[in-house]
Amino acid sequence: MKTRFAILLLSLLLSACATGRFSAMPNIMASCGMPKAPYAKFHACMETKVTVSSHAQEGDYYAKSSRELLAMLNDLQKQVDKHKISNRQAYIQLQNYVQQRILLERQQAQQAAVAFAVLAGAAAVGICSSHGGCGGSGGSGSAGGYNEPLLCSEDPYATRHCNIGKACGNTCIASSDECYLGRGTACNMTPKFYP
User: What is the distance between the alpha carbons of residues 39 and 87, in angstroms, rounded to a whole number?
Assistant: First the structure.
């Protein structure tokens, strides 16, 4: 169970990191001469900079993004060659496409970050629950909560065994007193009522 959970957290983190393909595109497009170079020259330059590895796997985000961008570049080049659109119109369409993809990547990264934070929080709660609580003051259990002291038979690590009175934090108090500390290193030899 813990292994599957760790794999899920890792995959979410990696998907958040892997969504930066288009954020670098404006700089790459500018290095290829956009918007001043003729589109054909720009297109040839972009084809050398946007590549798809022959070893890319089917679900590879970068390979998919590169294929989509190359298809867009080729489609615009065909339209420019047929004089359906001007160089300027091709650049505007490409720029709009890249801007939309950048916004989509940012949204996906934010969603992945939120999901990662929620799952990490759930993992922390699960770990605290399985270890009898985390945080708090004076060893009292979960943050802001109250955990009754354990019976000595349930707590092999107890350092103080309360035979008379009752356990409270790290010491023993009178049975009639109220305990606000909760669980600590002291334990009860017999069941007691709290607080």
Answer: 5
* Residue located via tokens 């107890």: 158
Question: Any idea what DSSP says for residue 85?
Answer: S
Query: What's the one-letter identity of residue 112?
Result: A
pLDDT in tens, the chain (195 residues): 555 655 655 555 555 555 566 778 888 899 999 888 999 999 999 988 887 766 656 667 777 888 889 999 999 999 999 999 999 999 999 999 999 988 888 888 788 777 777 777 666 666 555 555 555 444 444 445 678 898 998 888 889 999 989 999 999 999 888 888 888 899 999 988 876
98, containing H or E segment: helix 87-130
CA gap 46, 25 in Å, rounded: 10
pTM of the model: 0.52
